[in-house]
Amino acid sequence: DIQMTQSPSSLSASMGDRVTLTCRASQDISNYLAWFQQKPGKAPKSLIYAASSLQSGVPSKFSGSGSGTDFTLTISSLQPEDFATYYCQQYNSYPITFGQGTRLEIK
Amino acid sequence: QVQLVESGGGVVQPGRSLRLSCAASGFTFSSYGMHWVRQAPGKGLEWVAVISYDGSNEYYRDSVKDRFTISRDNSKNTLYLQMNSPRPEDTAVYYCAKDAFHTPADRAIEIDYWGQGILVTVSS
């Protein structure tokens, strides 16, 4: 199985900050990488697919990059609604696997 | 708009059976692969299984293989997860989720929509 490792596990940031979250795959997954946002008690929301493409309706403050094994999610100008847990997911091969998540908290 | 509504959750004893359902609307259900993803209390997301748009292909994570079965009824726009011999470690919120586009290819693609989730508790 492909292991997905996210860093950091948690991150404190202030309103208006720009943050970058990292996701590393244990083997080459090309660009078959998605990012999801999840708020407490809610279903995940799809943000990015194919490493850098925004899902419909997702604001451009979210951006993704990377290919192969190393990927990043950048969120600019943090607002209260952005504080949540973010998961990366590889869909290069089955079983699909998720990272352990990065919890983004307000400083 | 796309809606995915799970049902059938609750408390089940270890070794018994439970069937989850996911009622889909707002899109052509028979054209899209569908997934089950779960989340144990306080833990991260864990993919469980996928079924192709026409039901011809299924894939599972190893820990549920031979115990869980994913299926679909395209005439009823409904996805199912039959959980046989559940274990306490299967306790989780179960989400159904939809592939982002139709593909006849036998490979994984991205997810775009998720249901609200349903809690399954395996306990005696």
Mind sketching the topology for me?
The complex is a heterodimer of chains A (107) and B (124).
Chain A lengths: L3 E4 L2 E4 L5 E7 L7 E6 L6 E5 L3 E2 L7 E6 L2 E6 L9 E6 L6 E2 L3 E5 L1
Chain B lengths: L2 E5 L2 E3 L4 E9 L8 E6 L5 E7 L6 E3 L7 E6 L4 E7 L7 E8 L11 E4 L3 E5 L2
Parallel strand pairs in B: 2-11
Antiparallel strand pairs in B: 1-3, 3-8, 4-5, 4-9, 5-6, 7-8, 9-10, 9-11
What's the overall average pLDDT of chain B, rounded?
96
Share of helical residues of chain A:
under 10%
Structure summary, number of beta strands of chain B: 11
Please report which band the strand proportion of chain A falls in: under 5%, 5-15%, 15-25%, 25-35%, 35-45% or over 45%: over 45%
User: What would you call the quaternary organization?
Assistant: heterodimer
The DSSP helix count of chain B reads 0
* Strand portion of chain B: over 45%
Tell me the distance between the termini of chain B. 39 Å
The dominant shape of chain B is globular
Give structural attributes.
heterodimer, A: 107 residues, seven-stranded mixed β-sheet, four-stranded antiparallel β-sheet, 0% helix, B: 124 residues, 11 strands
Structure description:
Chain A is mainly β and 107 residues long. Helix content of chain A is 0%, strand content 50%. Chain A has strands at residues 4-7, 10-13, 19-25, 33-38, 45-49, 53-54, 62-67, 70-75, 85-90, 97-98, 102-106. The radius of gyration of chain A is 13 Å and the shape is globular. The termini of chain A are far apart. In chain B, the strands form 2 sheets. In chain B, strands 2, 4, 5, 6, 9, 10 and 11 form a 7-stranded mixed β-sheet that branches. In chain B, strands 1-3-8-7 form a 4-stranded antiparallel β-sheet, with no helix packed on it. With 124 residues, chain B is mainly beta. The mean pLDDT of chain B is 96. Chains A and B meet through strand 4, strand 5 and strand 10 of A and strand 5 and strand 10 of B.
